[in-house]
Request: fold
Amino acid sequence: MSAQANAPVRILVIQLGHLGDTLQSMMALRAAKQLYPQLEITFVARQSFASAAKKVPWINSVVELPIRSLVETSLAPEGEAESMRQIARWVIPLVQERWDIVFNWTYSEASSYLAALVPAKVRFGYSRSPDMQLRCIDGWSQYIQGVVQSGAPQNIHLTDILTTQILTALQIHAGDPAAEQSPDVPKSFFTLQFAPQTYRGQSLDHSSQWIAIQFGTDSLADETSAKTWAQFAKALLQENRSYKIVLLGDEDQSPAYREFVAEFGSPELLEARVLSMVGQANFDLWASVIGQCSWLCSGDSAAIHLASILGTRVLHVAAAESRWWETGPYGNGHYVMTPTDKALDSKMIYQIWSYANLPKIATQTMTLDRYLKSAASIDETQKDFEPAMRVFRSRIRSTDEGGGVQYEPITEHRQTEQEWLSLAVGHIARSWYCGWTPKLGRELSRVTLSPALLQSLRKLEESASVMVRIIRESRTTSTALAFKSGRLKSDRVMSVQRRDDLQELAKKLVELESLADRLIQAEPLLACFTNLSKVLMHNLDGDNLGVIAKQSASAYRQLEEGLGILGEWVQYTLRLAKPVPLTNVKPIREEKPL
Amino acid sequence: MAVDARLLQGQIVSEDESEKKDVERLLTEFLKALLAEQNISTLTEESA
Reply:
């Protein structure tokens, strides 16, 4: 079936998250609109973040949720009833429409109630069942709930998850995509009204190259963040005469700007080559400025997504505890740096920016490790040099590699068990929901495998084989339950013997689940399977015991397949680490004396 | 679970009283959860 150009597909996208979430959702929507020009998109966003969606010409309508006003109303005397009336009035236009598909990309409790209220042929993401239970019936949403939101390691970028989810949904419900990309989706993404040729008498002149520093969330300790940025900016400007810096941030970042100025010193340099737009909340101005810069240096996810959309390169200074591989800069040639044992300092940030800013050919021929050694005047042959940070470069994989964004490590470091697991779980997810995976272990390298990791994997292999037995037994039990209950005329009226049989099987399933939970206490790396198992079981929606048991058996089969892939990853990694005899080595012949 | 907009506008009273209650409950829970999680970002872990 091919997509019918004249048959519009009306979709409602609910995104009640923050600006970063809004921008990430729009990236996924752009991919869908390019392939399905007949999409008519209505986008629900918080009022304070709706301005970005309003600037996208191919989004047909933006519905703003006035959260601030709702909060103010609810706090007033007798405000509860009034805020109810307010929210009811707000919901009416949404429930008056009949949507083809609703995508609730907020993945929050609140949004699930809204998704349940609006009429739709199909819903993706969180919703509510008639008994008000949280529901998510599509595979990717279950993965988000069971794996991503539970904090388990996985390496698929959220933009890729949303994109794959919407494209799969559209292929099922609207047919194959158009053969050519839609001309309705311009490369510029936003239609901006503001061209900041001048701002307060200063200009983003084109004779200079501009670098944006966005204050906000980053890995630098709060009290030193602005100071670190000031030191970085000063070093950069002193070493690179053709560059200028523009500082960005909302009103809350005004104290950070003052700290920056105090630390920077050199008023003349500041006046001549640093422009502050801190406190400017205008989206058009913000997007125009970032769009004109060569680099954005920041840890702020909204700014990072905006730069990704606008094609500005990003140096993402990520907090060690952040899940940057799910929300980092999207596209080719961005850099992510994250601390190892101590906080990042301005020198490290400057070193990485300097390396990233080298011509592409130079970064291809000189490794970052060599570059850092030469900067630190360390002998290149020294093997135990380990930088106090980890650095990754983003790359869009080709389709035959699985597609999507990947962050390649460019510092030489040993892989942690969490990193290893994130690769394996990402692979398993592609197998579950895309039905196709690239060749196993492509992202693994022998040199990154440490003895500690291998030891941990041997333990994991044992635990995983126990988990496979538990899951397999659960599947067999569910199948038996489906068989026995399928022969009943009623779920309520049955012989005492049959009732006891069914109760026995149900009891066994509960015991197996408890056994799996106990195994997780000993092997937390397998938690993603038990978390997902709970989500899958919660979302069984059969209307009788037989159907529910059948669905449960199918869910256990999915988990068993996933554990099978995990086992293959463990075995592949252990084989990769084994010493290999050298072949094709010519024996050294003794030279005959002349 | 989807609702008739007229129920929200108060223009009709549903013949099915439970349907009306469901809508009220969905709206109440929506508002309650919305106010509770106003500063939470579910995907990117941004601060408010």
User: Anything to note?
Assistant: The mean pLDDT of chain B is 69. Residues 37 and 44 of chain B are 14 Å apart (CA to CA).
